[in-house]
Sequence to fold (296 residues):
Amino acid sequence: MKERVLVTGAAGFVGSHLVPLLLKKGYGVTALVRDHQEAERVNPNCKIIIADLAIKGSWQNQIENGSIIVHLAAEIASKTPNAFKLNNTIATKNLVVAAKRAKAKKLILFSSAAVTSIRLDWYAKTKKDQEKIVSLSKLPYKILRPSMIYGPGDTKNIGWLIGMVKKLPFIPLPGGGNFGRQPVYVEDICQVVLKLISKSYPKKIYEIHGAQYITMKEMVKIIKNALHSQKPVIVVPLFALEWAIWLWGKVLPNPKFTPDQIKSLTSGEKFSGDKWWLIFDIIPTRFEAGVAQMVK
Fold:
């Protein structure tokens, strides 16, 4: 068996793709999850650690010596700043202490493109905190800053957009949909992690943005084609989307989007980033192909 890889947030969206890939490649996988419900969603061939990373405890002594750690667990959406501080900042501090104790071979942190975007919310701030904690840790680290990750199992972002096209009688297109994103297919980012685990790469921050810049208008067209949908597209004012997101934030206990996320999304900002497909010798998945896999 190859090295043991500890994956935090193993039951999440990216984790649900990464863990099976690691097992297939022969790695021993330790899945660190928050509770028994999450543990049930993880491949039974994994060693399971159930713990709250924000609370120091016995879990810090359960990481096997020389493990490679992939830190996926994060607070993404919450109404309270404290949740971001606990689950992003403090959790990462506690994990770094445990990683040092276990003489971790590598620590791969999933940060976010949010730290270099116009976003100023608690998610972006605490992701910056994570980067600082890891970069000052003296551990052998790699930091990934992916932009929007999508693929099968995605319930936010592209998954949310596909659901909207499926369910609504017409497709509202805020502001004409001329703002875009650089989505990264989940299997591609998992391949990046696999390369970082199996080979030697410089200790640095890798900005992983999609090779394609795709507007929301183009996304809707591609999704409609994949679904063979003839539903009409109706342009609505941008403020209508902003108002709806604000209202959902007031009504829903855990809203999928925040006003600051929408501000970032509709800004149309483009990231330069690294040509990761050349660095890691990976052929990027075309958005059309990724969407086709999602609608199967």
Observations:
- Residues 81-101 form the longest helix (21 residues).
- The chain is about 40% helix and 15% strand.
- The mean pLDDT is 92.
- The radius of gyration is 19 Å.
